[in-house]
Design a protein that fits this description.
The complex is a heterodimer. By secondary structure, chain A is mostly beta strands. Chain A has 3 helices and 20 strands. Chain B is mainly α. Helix content of chain B is 53%, strand content 3%. Chain B is globular. Classes of the chains: A mainly beta, B mainly alpha. The interface between A and B is medium-sized, with 28 and 39 residues.
Chain lengths: 298, 433
């Protein structure tokens, strides 16, 4: 597998294209087409389901794709290509957050104990994290499955189309989230200002009292979208040499059912990249569009 | 049917032909980029590559010029953070544990200094491919200059650094790194003494850098960092104070401090009293202050970062004089030290080629080594504001460090970037502060 990977700058460069290992893909795609109604009302439905399990096999263990640690896309041995690799919350064995146990002063402001901190390799005598920072796989932009459902219904001269897309079981590296909160305009910042979170929470998560806890940036991106809804009517006017005239209205990307706190889970600041996917930083969300169509056949 | 039959025969015939013709060897050459061999094997390639050294050093927010000034400035209070949401800049301003090997400014600085070092090595190894001796000498001396710059900055910010690049490069102590930098400068000066820089070189690479003077200036700088005071004094004495060696910018290759930070008013900016503590604050009528910062509260930076096309000097005349002052003071020649110090104190803006002049009365403080050294430190901080040198000065003069009360710097040395640590097992442990 050829990948551009970063190298030690002391080698004399920043990155190199190298054969770093191999990659396997195992998946299945099913398509089901049904002609449900066939007379006055004609209804065709198509259901597509697709699933792929990707795994990289690289002796090097970890290859980060960016020298900016906030762009977490990486190749990690045994995981799918493009997983997010970064710092995590320090946690107790039961999964709850392991909070600081003493006050600290940052930038002249004294903060009380009870704030989150990044995970480290060990625990000191007080049970607090100590040692080197732990980086681990925090999320995966590869979906568990994708599915589409298309419905075409026609009656007399009307044609109705309804298309749903579902992409489920993937995460997005939402750097917007942390940056917005850091400058005081995100939901976490709002909670802290209202007193629902202890003072200093956003600072510590955002990387102002220690390393940024990048686990906070990884958000569930699973969505079901109403991709397209279109209604058209075909006329056959015997004038102007027209054989038919179709008027239609349609809307695309109208509704997204998701739990994503950003604008749109379907964006990628890496563009059309195989390596960097699900990276949301300053990207423009896919807009809702409405169209009125008029087509004429002569 | 018959037509189909004929088409089928023709088709089969074509397929058969492709099977029996020999396969071609594929050698994809990228027509958009020169191969390394094409660049390093001839004069014009090496001259173009020499231009590339400067470009790598000065252009962009990841360049050594930007990152060195930014890091030293934030460590020593020369700069203040404008937008606290800029976590990387804020981390450098808070210093201590907030800086680790993931910080992009540190990562970029290390990366581009090492690539610059490697590029210089490539040029030096291939200078023998230039037939004209004078041009070859100029290209080699020019590469020595940039390699010395790269090594000097690495020794400023890290305890150890690789002198030669390669896979799993070994690290040398900063003393060894600085000694190499001095040696490179001195060798280049000797080389240029018998081979003056020809027009063939300056026509391509330009003459904004006066090579012999720039090399002696760096030799003086790095000798001083090594504590070799007499050699620093002598080298500084060889530098012309009326010759300009500077990095020139324009609207395409923009002044990196201005373009990346000062024009935005959103990254970092200048500091009141040039960031000096009250005991060392500049005198009210020190004319260097309005040169470097505006009178607004808080101030905006001026000096060598006024616009996209403001040139940045490689060395200031004031630096050379202050090196001589410090070298004398450290050798306990106090009267001579004060003489040199007064040359800087009394220098008016019109007497300085860059307009940096204090126009103050001569030194009137105690004639003890300690007092004179403090005054020299203070003047270095003012005269050499935002040149990237204050961190090393703060350490060398024993100013309060990161763990002391009234700390004047928030780090001593910096951690090694994760790109190095992840890929080079020889990377040393990070310093505690």
């Amino acid at each position: 597998m050829l990948l551009e990977r970063t190298i030690a700058p002391s080698e004399g460069g920043a990155s190199i294209n190298a054969n770093v290992g191999s990659m396997t893909n195992k998946g299945i795609e099913l398509a089901l087409r049904a002609n449900i109604l066939k007379n006055d009302w004609n209804w065709n439905a198509t259901l597509i389901y697709s699933r792929n399990r990707n795994k990289v096999n690289i002796p090097q263990e970890i290859i980060r794709f960016s020298t900016d640690a906030n762009r977490m896309s990486s190749a990690v041995n045994g995981f799918p290509l493009g997983v997010f690799y970064g710092t995590a919350y320090a946690r107790n064995p039961d999964g709850s957050l392991l909070l600081t146990n003493r006050p600290q002063t940052i930038g002249g402001v004294t903060l009380q104990a009870g704030l989150p901190q990044p995970e480290r390799v060990g625990r000191n005598a007080e049970g607090q994290p100590t040692g080197a920072l732990v980086n681990r796989v925090l999320g995966d932009p590869n979906p568990r499955y994708t599915a589409s459902l298309a419905n075409d219904i026609s009656w007399k001269n009307f044609n109705f189309r309804l298309l749903f897309d579902a992409v489920q079981g993937f995460q997005v590296n939402n750097l917007n989230w942390t940056t917005a909160n850091n400058v005081g305009i995100g939901p976490l910042a709002e909670k802290e200002l209202r007193g629902e979170l202890p003072r200093g929470w956003v600072s510590l998560v955002g990387g102002f009292g220690g390393e940024r806890i990048r686990e906070e940036m990884v958000k569930d991106g699973s969505f079901v979208k109403l991709r397209e809804i279109a209604l058209s009517y075909t006329l056959t006017p015997k004038a102007l040499g027209l054989s038919n005239l179709t008027l239609g209205i349609s809307g695309r990307n109208l509704i997204s059912w998701d739990n994503y706190p950003g604008f749109d889970p379907e964006v990628n600041s890496g563009g059309q990249s195989n390596r960097i996917r699900g990276d949301d930083f300053g990207t423009v969300p896919i807009p809702r569009t409405f169209q009125f169509n008029l087509s004429a056949q002569f | 049917m018959k037509i189909f039959h004929i088409k089928k025969i023709v088709l089969c015939g074509l397929l058969a032909t492709t099977l029996i013709t020999p396969s071609c060897t594929l050698d994809y050459v990228n027509p958009n980029a020169a191969t390394e061999d094409a660049v390093l094997s001839n004069t014009s390639g090496l001259l173009a590559f020499s231009n590339g050294l400067r470009r790598r050093y000065i252009v962009g927010g990841a360049s050594p010029l930007y990152t060195v000034i930014t890091t030293s400035g934030l460590a020593t209070n020369e700069l203040r953070v404008v937008n606290a949401g800029n976590a990387d800049i804020a981390a450098l301003a808070n210093g201590r544990d907030n800086v680790n090997g993931l910080n992009p400014v540190i990562v970029n600085m290390w990366q581009n200094l090492n690539i610059l070092n490697a590029d210089c090595d490539r040029i030096i190894a291939n200078v023998r491919n230039i037939p004209d001796r004078a041009t070859a000498a100029a290209v080699q001396a020019h590469a020595h200059l940039y390699k010395a710059l790269a090594l000097g900055w690495m020794a400023t910010f890290w305890e150890q650094a690789p002198i030669t690049t390669g896979k799993n490069a070994t690290f040398s102590s900063r003393t060894a790194v600085l000694e190499t930098a001095v040696r490179l400068c001195d060798e280049a000066v000797t080389l240029l003494a018998s081979n003056p820089v020809p027009a063939a070189f300056t026509n391509v690479v330009g003459n904004d850098i006066d090579l012999p003077n720039a090399l002696n200036a760096l030799s003086a700088r790095y000798n001083l960092m090594l504590g070799r005071n007499q050699q620093a004094f002598d080298a500084a004495g060889r530098v012309s104070l009326t010759s300009r060696s500077r990095f020139v910018f324009d609207n395409i290759s923009q002044n990196p401090i201005f373009r990346t930070s000062f024009v935005t008013n959103n990254v970092h900016e200048a500091q009141t009293n040039l960031g000096l503590p009250p005991a060392l604050a500049p005198a009210a009528n020190d004319q260097r202050v309005p040169f470097y910062i505006t009178s607004a509260v808080p101030p905006r930076g001026r000096g060598f970062f006024l616009a996209d096309d403001t040139a940045i000097p490689l060395y200031l005349p004031g630096e050379m004089i202050l090196i001589r002052a410090e070298a004398q003071a450290r050798q306990n020649r106090l009267a001579e030290a004060v003489t040199e110090l007064n040359r800087v104190l009394t220098k008016t803006p019109s007497q300085d080629i860059y307009g940096v002049g204090a126009a103050l009365p001569p030194y009137a403080g105690e004639l003890t080594q300690n007092a004179i050294l403090i005054e020299i430190y203070r003047n270095r901080c003012i005269e050499l504001y935002l040149t990237g040198l204050r961190l090393e000065d703060s350490r060398r003069f024993g100013r309060p460090g990161p763990t002391a009360p009234n700390a004047e710097r928030n780090r001593n040395f910096y951690p090694y970037p994760f790109t190095e640590r992840d890929n080079n097992p020889s990377t040393p442990a990070d310093p505690a502060s």
